[in-house]
């Protein structure tokens, strides 16, 4: 079976109207360089990526310019408090772990996120960033491990992929696809093969929690002998759909 969905034959040039840092749901943010709008900070097990299972502090930033159909953090679109960078670092330091994950929303939608990432690295943390792939990642501190989505057609946001980002990824980063159907899976598989994505960095395939079962995705990956890491969201296996875990 072949996908009828078109994949980009070449990495396109920057799209007209691409999403810039600081743009959230069509609004331009004008936050101070040392302030961030924070949705929540919490301590839990990392549920995804090659860091799965590691006790980690999560810093969730408010705001996202995308609206994926499967989004499970819509509460982060608007809820949050403006906090000073020093205050965020002090709260992170109350937990006894070296792992910090900056997530959202779309963290890069806030300018001060870049400074937060660098200051966390300076403080000695092993830092990961979860990003939608829709905003330029080139200025992110090279010490950060970037977990970058490629949005599939089933996400309803495939047009937001900033393909130039593929050129900025390195072996310490990871590409993530959330798969919503077999058509989505085939689209991702064909893109993986044509772009040799697994030569750039590890590639993660994740079933959309309510749309594809882990068993279905596992069978497709094994059938096609794909060089990817299939993952389920460990925190949902343990705690279900719950905030702050
Ligand atoms: S990019 Fe992430 S936070 Fe934003 S809408 Fe999509 S799933 Fe939700």
Describe the SSE topology:
Blueprint: E1 23-24, E2 27-28, E3 35-45, E4 55-61, E5 81-84, H1 85-92, E6 99-103, H2 113-122, E7 126-131, E8 145-149, E9 174-179, H3 182-195, E10 203-207, H4 214-223, E11 229-230, H5 234-239
Parallel strand pairs: 4-6, 6-7, 7-8, 8-9, 9-10, 10-11
Antiparallel strand pairs: 1-2, 3-4, 3-5
The structure holds iron/sulfur cluster (SF4).
Iron/sulfur cluster is lined by residues 64, 66-68, 71, 73, 104-106, 132.
Q: Calculate Rg over CA atoms.
A: 17 Å
CATH superfamily, please? Aldolase class I
* Residue share in helix: 10-25%
Strand-residue proportion: 15-25%
The structure class reads alpha/beta
Count up the domains: 1
What is the helix tally? 5
**Neighbour order of strands in the largest sheet:** 5-3-4-6-7-8-9-10-11
Kindly state the number of beta strands.
11
Characterization of this structure:
This protein is of the alpha/beta class. It has one domain (35-239): Alpha-Beta Barrel (TIM Barrel), CATH 3.20.20.70. It contains five helices and eleven strands; from the N terminus they run βββββαβαβββαβαβα. The chain has helices spanning 85-92, 113-122, 182-195, 214-223, 234-239, and strands spanning 23-24, 27-28, 35-45, 55-61, 81-84, 99-103, 126-131, 145-149, 174-179, 203-207, 229-230. Strands 5-3-4-6-7-8-9-10-11 form a nine-stranded mixed sheet. Strands 1-2 form a two-stranded antiparallel ribbon. A hairpin with a 2-residue loop joins β1 (23-24) and β2. It is globular, with a radius of gyration of 17 Å. Bound molecules: iron/sulfur cluster. Iron/sulfur cluster is lined by residues 64, 66-68, 71, 73, 104-106, 132. Iron/sulfur cluster binds at residues 64, 66-68, 71, 73, 104-106, 132.
